[in-house]
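Q: Can I see a sequence and its folded structure?
A: Here is a first one.
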Amino acid sequence: MTNVDNTIQGFTNGTSYTLGLDQIGIINQAAGVIDANVSGLALYVDPDAADGLVNQGVMRASNGGTLFLSGNGGGTFTNSGTIEALTGGVLSFNGTVTSSGLVDVQDNSLSVTGSYTQTAGTFRLAGGTVTSSTALNFMAGLVDARGSITASLTNSANLQPALGGSGLFVTGNVSLLSASKLTFQLGGLTQGSQYGFLNVNGTVALGGQLVVSFVNAFQAANNNIFTVLSSTTVLSGAFTNVASGGRVNASDGSGSFLVTYSGDNVILSDFQPSGFAPVRKGSSTASGAVANRKTPGATQAMTSDEPRSIGTLGRINASRVRTQRTGIRLQNSDQLRDMLEGADTTTAKGQVIVHPRSQTKSAGAGLENNSPNGLTNGKADRRSQPPGDTISRRGGAIPRRSAN
């Protein structure tokens, strides 16, 4: 039987009549819809063993109805379209179901007494419940889930505990195979609702890659701590891209986290923005490649590719020169004051280093120039100064940025 573009809806009694009755193959084409939409009743779909059912369209449980994919006749179910539950609908997989399309449980329920394997596509759970008597096999694609799963998971897909609610709770054993990605989205500081959380009542065998991504314009500070995975037993295995005590980069390249997974937790902490070397006592450096991105609780880099006015306190006129992109990272207001009041600075390889100000103040008053031709009638003649010269004033030297 082929459903080209019709809607098959309603219910069957599941004993003397089913859709297919174990005797025919069923093809639900891209424009076809099969909808179990009668509250409290089920639509049984039972193809024969030879041809099974191929879904390219939509199969749905809605309005409190149950869509029952029966394996009574040995038929298999191959989904490249959509199988979904809406408005209180219930999905029941009693046969062998293989999906490369979308299975969308949303905040409803799925019961598996046969088997479920995902070879591509997406499995989505948004606050609902999934129970299975056999392990769920996610071999590829995306698993975007929050809510409750009572089943063991074998994962080579991208397993992503979704934001919202309190996270993804799994009662069963979780095996992360070598091709697995375990992805945690960070969109705030509240576990589950704002950042991804996987809670496992069972064993967890780590493997594959740990992936961390920022969402909702959130940026972590280095004192934030994220417990992204908890288990009732001690974790085994290791991620292939980061050992416990190592660092993992955020997917947008904005920085990296310290990763700790000893015991029964995986914890992200000590966020460090990209391009910032650890601060050394007496100096502060920043790479010119640092993005001008706001980081709550962190010192900001000031960068520009545009011509900027270079001015000093006093009567020195501002000049405009085009410079290479250079970042300046200031640890505190004292370093800014030191720089403005004449602390020594050096520039090397696109980095500006602010050194502690000398305790000995200049004995002169007013403005001075280290270059013999640098002052004309008390004003700085910048045209007479070669690149890299400094213009001095009371309190110390202010470097003139090079034009190259």
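Q: Show me another, different protein.
A: A second, unrelated one:
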Amino acid sequence: MWRKNLKLSMRPSLRTLLTHKLISLKLDIASRHSRGIVGVNAQYYEQNSIKVVTLGIIELNKKHTGVNLSAEIESILEDFSLTKSQIYSVTSDNGRNIIKSIEIINEDSDASADDDEEELETQVNVCSMASLKCAAHTLQLAVKDFLKFGM
């Protein structure tokens, strides 16, 4: 109970802190013993240093599909009043489901831009989030494949 209260008490200050900041999201999913958890961190630049805050660690009670993950990510963005135009990039492992979730979120952004096409201001502010693969995870997979298959 105290954790939930702590989370709720910290949310307004984090919301204020992240207002008008350009943010890079970091996503990771862990599955153990038939339980799945997604972690979402926000990284931003402030006072000559890079800051990282955790926006959520959520247990996934549904299949880890791109559609379900995109709904969870959008829910977290809403909780902190973050707009899609604030998200510069999303870094994750090479999981197809996370990559697909970002594609879905970008498609939603494109659809909303099409609805307001006559407004130039809306068109200028809508941008796509770049989906980046974690270099360390990619290197780990390459080394694993090398050890498995050799040269």
